[in-house]
């Protein structure tokens, strides 16, 4: 499914927005202007952009925790300022500053943003089932890492989604590592997508450093799901350039990853790969590329300012839990 120029423009723009967002959050974390955790997306931004850029607002999205789901969410139309206000603990955040990075955007169909690895699998089957009952062509995009597929509930979800032909896309962002553990030591095959074969589910392996190749696969899977043909498994081979979360040692197994290793990995930077592509194919001029960076930088700075200028919530014991589960609803 060849992408149009318009589709490539959208993907490139969302990738640059994700990249500048990720840089800003990483810097804030290092300088102590963000509390909690940040799982940097450097190197690992293209799969989320590819998975979510062509979803409709009514579709469901379960974002991966890498880059705190922002490549996915901003590609689905969410304003990043409500995320950054949330992570800075402000009243204007999407869950009124109560959630850190365990938030949701119900009006945009974004649920299951969580640090609980693999927790998404049962609920995406439920969302897929609900979509199928409604018969309204809604699609469920489930993004998660290789590490989450080590869990039993991943198999249950693949089985049920395949058996009931649910409109779910299993988009595995395989960076080959789960914190310090090497994926090759946790899986009997080099390709996690081989799991799909057991459930007679179509699967595809894509270059997760190439946002355009990844998006072609996503578009195909979304179309299949919308047409009622059932789930697809996409495995995007990607790379984590940085440590698992900021401040944690960067080990693979028990050995630190060396600068030389990281430099070699950085040769496959998704932003550089996409930039080369749009230049060589004449999709954007140099001036247009500069304008995309400028607009994305302005967006990131405005989001930061919005968060910094927002008030800290005055949380009472009575409403402590309220926004965590559903913004504003009684629980
Ligand atoms: C249920 C559960 N088990 C363990 C952890 C600790 N943990 C946090 S992130 C992570 C690795 C996740 O790896 P992967 O899914 O491949 O995503 P990546 O961080 O590599 O992008 C683990 C084991 C957790 N948060 N939740």
Q: What does this protein structure show overall?
A:
It contains 13 helices and 9 strands. By secondary structure, it is α/β, with parallel strands linked by helices. It has a single domain (5-325), classed as Thiamin diphosphate (ThDP)-binding fold, Pyr/PP domains (Rossmann fold, 3-Layer(aba) Sandwich). The strands form 3 sheets. Strands 1-2-3-7-6 form a 5-stranded parallel beta sheet, with helices on both faces. The model has no long low-confidence stretch (mean pLDDT 94). The chain binds thiamine diphosphate. Thiamine diphosphate (TPP) binds next to strand 2 and strand 4.
Keywords:
331 residues, single chain, binds thiamine diphosphate, alpha/beta, globular, 44% helix, 11% strand, two-stranded antiparallel sheet, Rossmann fold, five-stranded parallel sheet
User: What is the distance, rounded to the nearest whole angstrom, between the alpha carbons of the first and last residues?
Assistant: 45 Å
User: For the record, what is the CATH homologous superfamily label?
Assistant: Thiamin diphosphate (ThDP)-binding fold, Pyr/PP domains
Q: What does the main sheet amount to?
A: 5 strands, parallel
Enumerate how many helices there are, as a single number.
Answer: 13
Q: What is the highest CATH level, the class?
A: Alpha Beta
Hey, roughly how much beta strand do the residues contain?
A: 5-15%
Decide which structural class fits the backbone: alpha/beta
**Count of individual beta strands:** 9
Low-confidence stretches: none
């Amino acid at each position: 499914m060849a992408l149009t120029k318009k589709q490539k423009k959208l993907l490139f723009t969302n990738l640059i927005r994700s990249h500048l967002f990720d840089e800003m959050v990483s810097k804030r974390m290092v300088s102590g202007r963000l509390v909690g955790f940040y799982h940097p997306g450097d190197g690992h931004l293209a799969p989320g952009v590819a998975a979510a850029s062509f979803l409709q607002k009514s579709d469901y999205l379960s974002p991966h925790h890498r880059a705190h789901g922002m490549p996915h969410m901003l590609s689905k139309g969410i304003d990043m300022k409500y995320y950054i206000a949330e992570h800075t603990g402000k009243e204007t955040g999407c869950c009124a500053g109560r959630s850190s990075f365990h938030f949701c955007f119900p009006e945009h169909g974004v649920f299951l943003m969580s640090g609980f690895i693999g927790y998404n699998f049962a609920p995406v089957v439920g969302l897929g089932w609900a979509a199928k009952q409604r018969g309204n062509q809604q699609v469920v995009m489930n993004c998660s890492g290789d590490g989450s597929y080590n869990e039993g509930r991943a198999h249950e979800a693949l089985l049920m989604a395949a058996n009931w032909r649910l409109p779910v896309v299993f988009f595995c962002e395989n960076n080959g590592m789960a914190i310090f553990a090497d994926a090759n030591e946790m899986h009997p095959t080099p390709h996690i997508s081989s799991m799909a074969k057991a459930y007679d589910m179509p699967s595809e392996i894509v270059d997760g450093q190439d946002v355009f190749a990844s998006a072609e696969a996503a578009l195909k899977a979304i179309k299949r799901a919308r047409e009622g043909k059932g789930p697809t498994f996409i495995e995007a081979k990607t790379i984590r350039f940085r440590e698992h979360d900021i401040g944690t040692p960067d080990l693979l197994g028990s050995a630190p990853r060396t600068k030389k290793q990281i430099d070699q990995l950085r040769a496959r930077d998704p932003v550089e790969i996409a930039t080369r592509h749009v230049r060589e194919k004449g999709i954007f001029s140099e001036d247009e590329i500069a304008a995309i960076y400028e607009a994305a930088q302005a967006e990131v700075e405005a989001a930061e300012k919005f968060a910094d200028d927002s008030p800290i919530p005055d949380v009472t014991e009575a409403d402590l839990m309220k926004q965590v589960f559903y913004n504003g609803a009684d629980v």
